[in-house]
Amino acid sequence: xxxxxxxxxxxxxxxxxSSANIVGTKxxxxxxxxxxxxxxxxxxxxxxxxxEAESTLQKEALTMAAGKAKxxxxxxxxxxxxxxxxxxxxxxxxxxxxxxxxxGLYGACSTCGESLSLGAMCVAAGYADCVAAVTSxxxxxxxxxxxxxxxxxxxxxxxxxxxxxxSGAFILGKEKSKAKITGxxxxxxxxxGIKDSMNMGAAMAPAARAVIRQHFKDFDRKPEDYDLIITxxxxxxxxEILIKxxxxxxxxxxxxxxxxxxxxxxxxxxxxxAGGSGCxxxxxxxxxxxxxxxxxxxxxxxxxxxxxxxxxxxSFNEGMSVPGIAHAVVIEHEVN
Length: 336
Description:
Helices cover about 35% and strands about 25% of the residues. The protein is α/β, with parallel strands linked by helices and about 325 residues long. The chain has 2 domains: about 15-175, Stage V sporulation protein AD (Peroxisomal Thiolase, Chain A, domain 1); about 180-335, 3-Layer(aba) Sandwich (Peroxisomal Thiolase, Chain A, domain 1), CATH 3.40.47. A 7-stranded mixed β-sheet has the order 1-2-10-17-14-11-12. α6 links the parallel β11 and β12 (about 255-260). The radius of gyration is 18 Å and the shape is globular. The two termini are about 25 Å apart. The model has no long low-confidence stretch (mean pLDDT about 95).
C-alpha cells in the first residue's frame, strides 16, 4: 500500500529467507572479520583481472545464499543486481551463467537498497515467490575506473573512503523466516554542488537526510521507533553532516545512527580514511552483521539506508558536481 509521497508499506511482508557474503583480505582484517561467510585469500580470487575477480564475488555470494535457502537456481524467478563498473559488467559477467531473468541496476553505492526494494515489491505484489538481490564492489576495479590506477600510488586525503571488496546476496520470498521487509522509501536525487570526488560522505549525506526525513513523514514515525538507523557509506564526515542536517529538521538520530562504512574498518589501524564505501560495503555489513541480529531478535526494527554518489569519470572530468541518492528499507524481526 502507498504511504505518503515516496513510500510503500507491505501488508504481506516479503521475507529475507537467507543471505550470504564474501569479502577481500582488508575487510577480513577489520572489526567484522568474525562475522563474514568467506574471506578471500587474495583480492584477485583466482582471476586474471580485478573486474573478473568482482564477477566471481557475485557468483559465489549468490551460490552461497541460494544454498542457505535450500533453493535451486531454477526456483529464483528474478535477479535484481548491480555494481559500480561501467555497463555493470561485474554483474553481467558474474551472473550470466545462472540463466535467471535479470534486472541490472545502478544506484552507485545505494544499489543494495535499490535491489532489496525492487525485490520486495516484486514478491509483495505476487509477481514472484522467490527473487535474489545481489550487489558487489572491488577496491581495485573502482580505483581504476573512478580515480587512479593503483600503480600511481596517489596520496589519499582524510575525507576519502575506501571501496570495500565484497559482495552480498539476499534471497527474498514468501517463505517465512525471522527477518522481513515491511516497507520502503525510495529516494530522490539531491545535489548540493559538491565537486570533490574524494569526499563522498559530504556528497551523499544530503540524500540520506532527504530520504530519512521523508520516511518519517510518510510513516508518521520518529527516530525512537527504530532500534537503529543504518546508513551505507557516509563514513565519519558524512555521518557528522547527516546528524546535523536532520537536527535542523528537528529529528535527532544521534543515539540510533550507525554507518556501515564506519563499522567495517578500523580506520586508525587500517588507513581507510573516513571509512568504507562501495556497493559491497552496505551489502556485506547488513548480511554478515546486522541481519543476524534482526533474526535473533536483538534488533526488532531497523531502517537500512544505503547511500550512493551518482558520478562517472565523464561527469567528473567535465567539472560537474556529484549528486547523491539514498533508499530506505525497513527490516523487522518476525516474532512467530
